[in-house]
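Risk register update: the risk of archive-format incompatibility is retired. Evidence:
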Amino acid sequence: MGSIGYARVSTLEQNVDLQHAALRAAGCDRIFTDHGVSGTRASRPELDKLLDHLRAGDEVVVWKLDRLGRTTRNLLALIDDLEHRSVHFRSVTEGISTTGPMGRAMLTVMSAFAQLERDQLAERTRAGMAVAAEYGRKAGRREVTGDHAKVRRAQDLKAQELTPADIGKIIGASRATVYRYLSIGSNEPV
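Archived output:
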């Protein structure tokens, strides 16, 4: 019987050190971590292993509620499953524990607010994209068509056999932008 941590990051580039430090400080001896796994996915390999590992009397500890589940329905279903197995749940950041009725009530309320916040963000994003479309703007990365002088300069420097990194330093552009400049009007590899 012990405290077992669960950490998750959505992309492989994200770092779990902060979550691991908080979980160790909360008394977790073992931590299961999913890397590059969205919270909206039904199957998360390390979470599945954690759920298989649990025994009655254990406690699942997360850094924040959204690490365990992205939707209120998903989160509450997981917590219900834990309770039916006599496993407790604790969220370090929110200070919530299911060891009492007040903790369970707070968990439900906070999950609902987290879901509301995500829904509002998605709604604002859609509304902003619709307004932008009305004004003829489209979402996403802008096309490289602007500074024709920089495009010509980048192509001239490439002809002098400079590297894209050096070209970027000279013309004041990122390496990715230099690659786009060099690909304009050319079918040759950069």
